[in-house]
Specification:
By secondary structure, the protein is mostly helical. 76% of the residues lie in helices and 0% in strands.
């Protein structure tokens, strides 16, 4: 499936395999990689659909506001096309989020099965960043640096960790 470019079928096949062989870290990582590929495909389709939604009603930018806009109303043909494009962007956004969340979960499984693998931690960190999961990304990058303390990218990774820490919610301080 992968060689044919059928990512969805490859994901399904790997999921079926992993239902039987839950401890195959390499396949968990491969599945995570495919899910990241799927997510990127969805992002590209989302961007195209978003542009289509904007182009579906080219008159929207020129419509008046307020009472005059209510009196004129909307162009039904444009409105239907815009709604269809908006629905598509919503679906693609959900598919992207699901694929990214699945990739992080699968990389977590791979890294648990290979706790001494710096590569597994790096893959998890990268996927978590893509998914917007700063807490997981920080933990994985920190583990990566412990496993590979002499990495040439150490300074960049430490800077990345600092940037990710800034995105975490501030702990609530209780007043006693």
């Amino acid at each position: 499936y992968e060689t044919k470019g059928d990512t969805a079928s490859a994901v399904t096949a790997l999921q079926s395999y992993l239902a039987l062989k839950k401890s195959d870290a390499n396949v968990w990582a491969e599945l995570g990689g495919l899910e990241l590929t799927q997510a990127q495909t969805y992002v590209t389709q989302y961007q195209a659909a978003q542009q289509a939604a904007q182009l579906a009603d080219p008159s929207a930018a020129f419509l008046p506001g307020g009472t005059l806009a209510q009196a004129i109303g909307t162009n039904a043909a444009y409105q239907g096309a815009a709604q269809q494009a908006t629905n598509q962007t919503s679906t693609l956004y959900q598919q992207t989020t699901t694929a990214l969340t699945s990739a992080v979960a699968d990389y977590k499984k791979a890294s648990k099965l290979q706790p001494r693998s710096a590569a597994a931690q790096q893959e998890l960190a990268t996927a978590a960043e893509s998914a917007g999961d700063a807490k997981t990304a920080i933990a994985a990058w920190t583990a990566f640096l412990k496993l590979d303390p002499n990495t040439p990218q150490r300074a960049q990774i430490e800077q990345r960790i600092k940037q990710l820490q800034k995105t975490l919610p501030k702990p609530k301080v209780s007043s006693s």
